Amino acid sequence: MAVRRNVDIITMGCSKNLVDSEHLIYSLGRIGFRAWSNPEKTHGGVAVVNTCGFIEAAKEESVNMILSLVDEKKRGQLDKVIVMGCLSQRYRNELRAELPEVDCFYGKFDWNGIIEYLKQEYGAKERKQCSTSPDDRVLTTPRHYAYVKISEGCDHHCAYCAIPLITGPQRSRSIESICDEVKGLVAAGTKEFQIIAQDSTAYGTDLYGHKALPELISSLSDIEGVEWLRIHYAYPNSFPLELLDIMAERDNVCKYLDIALQHIDDNVLARMRRHITGDEIRRLLETIRRRVPGIALRTTMLVGFPGETDAEFDHLVQFVREERFERLGVFTYSEEDGTYAARHFKDDVPEKVKRKRSDTIMAIQQQISSEICEARKGTVMRVIADRTEGDYMVCRSQYDSPEVDGEVLVRIEDLDGVNIGDFFDVKITAADEYDLYASPVKD
Q1: Is residue 300 within 8 Å of 328, Cβ to Cβ?
Q2: pTM score, whole prediction
Q3: Host H or E run for residue 298
Q4: Rounded Cα distance, 150 and 219, in Å
Q5: Strands annotated E in 96-221
Q6: Residues facing residue 152 across a β-bridge
Q7: 300 - beta bridge partners?
Q8: How far apart are CA 132 and CA 130, in angstroms?
Q9: Residue 167: is it exposed, middle or buried by C-beta count within 10 angstroms (0-12/13-18/19+)?
Q10: Please, which residues bridge with residue 389 across strands?
Q11: E strand map for 53-174
Q12: Residue 45 per-residue DSSP state
């Protein structure tokens, strides 16, 4: 039987995992394998699951994917199943015992071992030449945007979060290496960059002894060809306020900030070990909006944390109504092994109550989002064309991060000479709860 040199990489969880998968695809190409990312169906050969271990639902999704691939292997549709990533990093021994059909397990940081394993199993050899790729990765996103991981790990130990148990302490990349990566991506046609980390606002503390995100963003925005930089996964405590001046002054730094707040009630914040008070959060948000006029704020809230009372939840509801975030998501509390909360608190909020609280927040946010979108009617915005879908070119503004935010839809029949990845101006003509509809502004 002919050797099947196909590798399907199924990436679970966040964009940080996606970057790891992109590096793996490049490395697989160097030893003669054809690799696909997030395929709708496997191509035979090898399947690699890049797992997520953030919360119980994500872990269950990863395990279900592994089980489905194991079934394909049993039916002869796959030769091998390999597991890597966060879930495998933390539960490797348990997974190995429960899933003996999996050929091998790698974690979050040793996944390069997959290359050596496949070399031995298939007699593959390193190629001197392979497809051109900046920074040893092959983009799985559309070419015009990319995720740039600036650090790995987290020094926070929030009571509910298992990420530091998986990733360990923060390890920042140098400003020079990140700039080199972005320059390579620009040369390959990338225009928009999503800056990601477990905690982007603490970037550089381990390397430079201070929070160096403002310096990094300033350096990246100076690179010719960088059209948009968008910052994700900021923390509110000890926020580097110098960053706000750069966001306000630089046209290619999006007026957008993804900052996880989780709650506003002081008692809940203290139990969560967030090291910030509700008043401090309010003052920070006021400062951000004042110093970066027109900024869009994305945040997440966590409901159902152990001990959360009706009054504490009502405090959060009032805060969401008052602050009117442009973008907001909700998690329900999930008890994670080894976390401070799992060791010290009883998971005492019923699941039904958690879901109801989540639904309440999202219903409020849906109305807020609808009103914000409605207020944009008649305004002119710069957008980037992402893809075609039916009769529409699906675009995004600087206020819209890929896959998680709303979109701007323009009828294809109204466009002339606009290609995917192009920037152009539109006038907003209609809106719904999360998306905008627009027509191109003619010269």
Answers
A1: yes
A2: 0.92
A3: strand 296-303
A4: 13
A5: 104-105, 145-149, 151-152, 171-172, 192-196
A6: 171
A7: 329
A8: 6
A9: buried
A10: 392
A11: 80-85, 104-105, 145-149, 151-152, 171-172
A12: S
d(C-alpha 419, C-alpha 422), whole Å: 6
Please report, in tens digits, the pLDDT of each residue of the chain (443 residues total): 445 789 999 998 888 899 999 999 999 998 889 888 877 778 889 999 999 887 788 888 899 999 999 999 999 999 999 999 999 998 999 999 999 999 999 998 899 999 999 998 887 666 654 444 446 899 999 999 999 999 999 999 999 999 899 999 999 999 999 999 999 999 999 999 999 999 999 999 999 999 999 999 999 999 999 999 999 999 999 899 999 999 999 999 999 999 999 999 999 999 999 999 999 999 999 999 999 999 999 999 999 999 999 999 999 999 999 999 999 999 999 999 999 999 999 999 999 999 999 999 999 999 999 999 999 999 999 999 999 999 999 999 999 999 999 999 999 999 998 999 999 999 999 999 999 999 999 87
Residue 289 tokens, joined: 């909006």
Report the candidate in 224, 203, 96, 102 with the shortest Cα–Cα distance to residue 148: 203
CA of residue 310 relative to chain centroid, distance: 31
Q: Which of 406, 408, 402 is nearest to 427 (CA)?
A: 408
DSSP one-letter string for 374-438: HHTTT-EEEEEEEEEETTEEEEEETT--TTTS--EEEEGGG-SS--TT-EEEEEEEEE-SS-EEE
* 218 neighbors 253 (Cβ within 8 angstroms): no
Q: Which amino acid is at 394?
A: V
180 dihedral zone (left: phi>0; alpha: psi -120 to 50; beta)? alpha
Give the full edge-to-edge strand order of the sheet including 253-259.
145-149, 192-196, 228-234, 253-259, 296-303, 327-332
Which position has the token pair 């996880």?
A: 260
With tokens 């905690």, the residue in question is 199
